[in-house]
Amino acid sequence: MIPRLKFAHLPTPIEILPRLTEALGGPRLLVKRDDQTGLAFGGNKIRKLEFLIADAQAQGAQMLITAGAVQSNHCRQTAAAAARFGFKCILVLTGDPPAQVSGNLLLDHLFGAEIVWAEKSQREVVLQQTFDQAQREGHKPYLVPYGGSNPVGALGYAFAVEEFVGQGMDADWIVFASSSGGTQAGLVLGARLFGYKGKILGISVDEPERVLQERVVKLASETAEGLGKRIEFSPDEILVNADYNTAGYGVLTEAEREAIHLFARYDGLLLDPVYTGRAAAGMIDLIRKGFFKKDETALFWHTGGTTALFAEMYGQNLL
Predict the structure, then answer these.
(1) Using an 8 Å Cβ cutoff, are 241 and 201 in contact?
(2) Are the CB atoms for 173 and 292 separated by under 8 Å?
(3) Cα 218 from Cα 302, distance rounded (Å)
(4) What percent of the chain has pLDDT over 90?
(5) Would 145 disulfide with which of 84, 96, 136, 150, CB 3.0-4.6 Å?
(6) Contact, 262 vs 293, CB < 8 A?
(7) What is the assigned CATH class of domain 45-148?
(8) Same fold, 14-44+150-318 and 45-148
(9) What is the pLDDT of residues 87-111, one digit of tens each?
(10) Residue range 173-193, pLDDT digits in tens
(11) Is 72 labeled as catalytic in the residue annotation?
């Protein structure tokens, strides 16, 4: 049996978005509220951390180490899980310490995480050095992968599909933000295991289409292998749209700004500037271009991250 700590608030609800559906002229829109998974304002990483924290405990670890951007949702949730289960935590964050501590970074500090700063080009080197030093000092560290995206973490979204199917809300499409690949790999594997017949479309936040497809293929197959039987996928099976990331990671454009305003003003739903904002902007543009049929149902899988709305770097630009 695969170790799992059940601390997420599951199942997350599925809601209909009637006013946004009407405003955009169809298809019928649903939202899966993984922004409500509970710990530390929720988000998709909590599903992954249920398996990753259990694995860390099984290995006798005493410290969690991971990496991300200054406003990383993954780092915030990892720091919270470390506090919840009694681990020390070190976060390797890209860039320099900001003059104003806000958003996710503020929460990282509240959860007691130690912050190590690194240039983006050196982040992996600094991450390994931090891990090696923690080992030498006898802290028994556990390396949580970037985005929680390895064959252990991706299990969270394989079983999320089982949850979704059991909720009885049919959807022709699942649309979501895709970056490190773990969420998409889990969804693709879960669809195969639990009989979801619709299409799974990842809106890339930062990676080229082929890079993300190949990453998801590898991870989905390795995750299946961890369940006892390797399943082979091909890149062409993995639906990725990388048309909306040309501005660069975390760069707020008018498209994300409009998406955030539309979701908020039509259905009272908050998105974040980096992930769900970009994925929603892509979905909205595809709706306007007629990509989805009017009589179809598209489920937007909300992966969380709304705490970034309160980061100094985004707040004023959203108004």
Answers:
(1) yes
(2) yes
(3) 24
(4) 95
(5) 150
(6) no
(7) alpha beta
(8) yes
(9) 999 999 998 899 999 999 999 999 9
(10) 999 999 999 999 999 999 999
(11) yes
Residues with Cβ within 8 Å of residue 41, at least 6 apart in sequence: 35, 76, 107, 304, 306, 307
Q: What does the block give as tokens for 291?
A: 């990509």
pLDDT digits (tens, 9 = 90+) for 58-79: 999 999 999 999 999 999 999 9
| Cα(288)–Cα(43) distance, integer angstroms | 28
The architecture (CATH level 2) of 14-44+150-318 comes to: 3-Layer(aba) Sandwich (3.40)
How is residue 37 written in tokens?
């998974």
| Distance from C-alpha of 259 to C-alpha of 143, rounded to nearest angstrom | 35
Closest Cα partner for 90 from 23, 55, 142, 157? 142
With contact defined as beta carbons under 8 Å apart, do 268 and 16 qualify?
no
| Distance spanning both ends of the chain, measured CA to CA | 49
Nearest to 26 by CA among 307, 290, 273, 304: 290
Q: Which two tokens stand for residue 237?
A: 């099976």
Residue 186 CA to residue 191 CA, distance in Å, equals 8
pLDDT for position 229: 92
Q: Domain boundaries in the chain?
A: 14-44+150-318, 45-148
Amino acid at 168: G
How many whole angstroms separate alpha carbon 280 and alpha carbon 171? 16
What does the block give as tokens for 293? 């049929």
